[in-house]
Amino acid sequence: MEVRARAPGKIILSGEHAVVHGSTAVAAAIDLYTYVTLGFPTPSDNDDTLILHLKDMDLEFCWPVGRIEEVLPDLGSHATSSPSSCSLETIKAIASLVEEQNIPEAKIGLASGVSTFLWLYTSIHGYKPAKAVVTSELPLGSGLGSSAAFCVALSAALLALSDSVTLDFRHQGWQMFEDSELELLNKWAFEGEKIIHGKPSGIDNTVSTYGNMIKFRSGELTRIKTNMPLKMLITNTKVGRNTKALVAGVSERTIRHPKAMDCVFSAVDSISSEFASIIQSPVTDDLAITEKEEKLEELMEMNQGLLQCMGVSHASIETVLRSTLKYKLSSKLTGAGGGGCVLTLLPNLLSGTVVDKVIAELESCGFECLIAGIGGGGMEISFSGSS
Ligand SMILES: Nc1ncnc2c1ncn2[C@@H]1O[C@H](COP(=O)(O)OP(=O)(O)OP(=O)(O)O)[C@@H](O)[C@H]1O
Ligand SMILES: C[C@@](O)(CCO)CC(=O)[O-]
Ligand SMILES: [Mg+2]
């Protein structure tokens, strides 16, 4: 039997980075997914390897399970369903297993994802042979939560083939976990994110697990529902960056200027709370929607200004801001910044011609634009008979 899990990426509408320091943030799932297929070989396959195939990257990694046991003698012998953190010592041992695979230098950023795979797999299934195949519709390292979608889809596939969740194997098509299982999955995914991010707030794995739209503060999620149409243009500047380094940079700035940064985080907290209450409050007509959109645009501009204060904007992001402002449209970076993706609010009554013009201008700068569906479902799995 084989399981396929999919987990969505996300956009952060308000509050990235500040959320790591206890402020409120608002995020929504998008309809772009990471897929993980997992299967165990049958005894007649006589296979004793653990394989990770990153299909889009055309990379396959393979470890004899005996080698994993040799390097990680404790981790897999206590294979468990209760999530715990990966110690520094274990991270180092895993890094040596990853190094043996000689990842090409140009793709070395994948090393943390591969380490996360080895850790999650061995923690949950021990030294059992298996094959995992990963594909993703998300651009990696661009602010759309690829790391979280990877951790969520992977943890889901691992748990689905463990004893800790009860599922209907005969069910055709996608199915969801129960609430307590989602909670367990989210905890594992968070531990995985820690290996990739260093100090994640947990917002990305949480929105990928539960889907829809969430308000998130200090590890607590509130599911929210928008009462107005919300259309965002996503512009990928294609400037590569890494969330771990950007999050660490903000923490260092906070150590240098604690009082000032505290004010910045508290302003972001107010912006996110206001953003959430505007989208949740009922609307009666187009005029009311326009009024709300104007407020949201102002909040996005304020949030972007504060992200600049945190040091996570980038020349490419500023170019997107300037280009969209020419059309009186407001934008902010989304995710960790430093390049990556930018959100632009597309008002309800904005003409298609203007949207086309903005996109053409942004694409002439070498950026990539997309309009993703916002607020869709979270993680789902499906079973198929044989591998
Ligand atoms: N499909 C995947 N396969 C393997 N590794 C992945 C995959 N998706 C993400 N990763 C890992 O996550 C890293 C990117 O994570 P990072 O947090 O820096 O960016 P992001 O999650 O796309 O953006 P943000 O955190 O700002 O939303 C990759 O370099 C890789 O190590
Ligand atoms: C930058 C950050 O706030 C969001 C990344 O999508 C990091 C986090 O919350 O873990
Ligand atoms: Mg990430």
From TrEMBL:
Catalytic activity field: (R)-mevalonate + ATP = (R)-5-phosphomevalonate + ADP + H(+)
SUPFAM superfamilies, per the entry: GHMP Kinase, C-terminal domain (SSF55060), Ribosomal protein S5 domain 2-like (SSF54211)
Coiled-coil annotated spans: none
GO molecular function: ATP binding; metal ion binding; mevalonate kinase activity
GO process annotations (BP): isopentenyl diphosphate biosynthetic process, mevalonate pathway; sterol biosynthetic process
Localization annotation: Cytoplasm
Enzyme Commission number(s) from the entry: 2.7.1.36
Domain (GHMP kinase N-terminal) ranges: 126-211
Gene3D superfamilies linked: 3.30.230.10, GHMP kinase, C-terminal domain
Annotated protein name in UniProt: Mevalonate kinase
